[in-house]
Amino acid sequence: MDTETKEKPLPLPLYDNESQQPSPDAPIRDLSPDLRPVFKALREHCLGIPRAVENVRHDGPNWKWVWAYERDGYTLCVIHPMKSNVDLSFPLPQRYEPRFEKSELDPAIREAASKGPTAAKVRYVRVPVTNSDAIARLFQGVELKLQLMAEEGKGG
């Protein structure tokens, strides 16, 4: 029996040319037909955050181009359009983790919040968004983060 743990390969980014920035609505045209409505609806949710600013930015060698949503200098969430899927991620300060653990959030978010990588006291929560029906349920993690930020007087 093979006891060796194999890491999953990283998903391939939809846009991998770092010198060619995609337009904000490019994934609606370029994703596979089943993922286009997922990206579109997720983007609409993100743009619906009061005072959120959309920023298409190059996010390093693994994720390439991402759609980041920021407010008052804080990254609220990020959409990762990949060739085979669309992911939603958000940085979660570790001080918020106990509230996430005790919440009624979707189990996929709670699991991602407990297992995501950390750097500089921030956990990176990333969940795949498999269909448009899952968006509102998964977006609750971003909404809880916004609530916690408002309670601290940050970006609220």
Distance between the termini: 53 Å
Oligomer: single chain
Domains, number: 1
The major beta sheet can be summarized as: 6 strands, antiparallel
H/E order of the elements? Answer: HHEHEEEHHEEH
Describe this structure in words.
By secondary structure, the protein is an alpha+beta fold. It has a single domain, classed as Aspartate Aminotransferase, domain 1 (Alpha-Beta Complex). It has helices at 26-30, 36-47, 60-63, 97-101, 107-115, 135-152; strands at residues 53-58, 65-71, 74-81, 86-93, 118-119, 122-128. The protein has a six-stranded antiparallel sheet with strand order 1-2-3-4-6-5, covered by helices on one side. The protein is globular and about 40 Å long.
Write out key terms for the chains shown:
156 residues, Aspartate Aminotransferase, domain 1, globular, 6 helices, six-stranded antiparallel beta sheet, disordered N terminus, single chain, alpha+beta
Write the SSE topology.
Layout lengths: L25 H5 L5 H12 L5 E6 L1 H4 L1 E7 L2 E8 L4 E8 L3 H5 L5 H9 L2 E2 L2 E7 L6 H18 L4
Antiparallel strand pairs: 1-2, 2-3, 3-4, 4-6, 5-6
Question: Summary?
Answer:
The protein has helices at residues 26-30, 36-47, 60-63, 97-101, 107-115, 135-152; strands spanning 53-58, 65-71, 74-81, 86-93, 118-119, 122-128.
